[in-house]
Amino acid sequence: MGALVKCFPISLNIFPRQYPRQELKGESVLPDYDQLDDESKALIVSLLPAVATEIAEVIGFGPALDLFNAFGGTEAYLYKSVPPLGCVGAIRFAELGAVIGEENVLRLGNTYNSEGGHIYIPRCQAAMNALKTRQIVAEFDELLKTRTVRDAANKLARRFRLSNRQIEKIVNGRKQCKPKGATP
After folding, report:
1. Are 173 and 140 in contact (CB under 8 A)?
2. b/e map 142-166, b = 16+ CB within 10 Å
3. Of 93, 156, 182, 183, which sits most exposed with the smallest number of CB within 10 A?
4. What phi and psi, each to the nearest 5 degrees, are found at residue 121?
């Protein structure tokens, strides 16, 4: 005889309109777009795919990078208005809104809804890796003022979730990616 399973009713109001921003965004190791120097901004823009550039033009580069970092590689259905609570779209709307703000989700919905509302959010891996490499090199140089090479590499390995050997390869090679078309 099978065991009885007690079911609990699910409230349709379990997904609030506003999640705390950090809950879904997580602890990002990448800096805010506004804190980047002009050279880093140019590097990122040059490495973005066309659809990513279009998204960034609609919502701004800062929120766009947050979007790519949190949801890159996924598809989303975008609405022109806030979807009713309880539907699957409301959950995704709240998740996206927690990262880039509800007004930016609606901007994307109004821009891309004529294309069926579905949008692929690119990973932008080349741009994210280039940005991460620049940040590792800069932080490594800063850490060397107060730490040994090994301590600095170990600290950055934990922070960026890489091995200390990967950190050493990055800083020894000074893998500073250059924008497309840049001269050596």
Report:
1. no
2. ebeeeeeeeebbbbbbeebebebee
3. 183
4. -95, 110
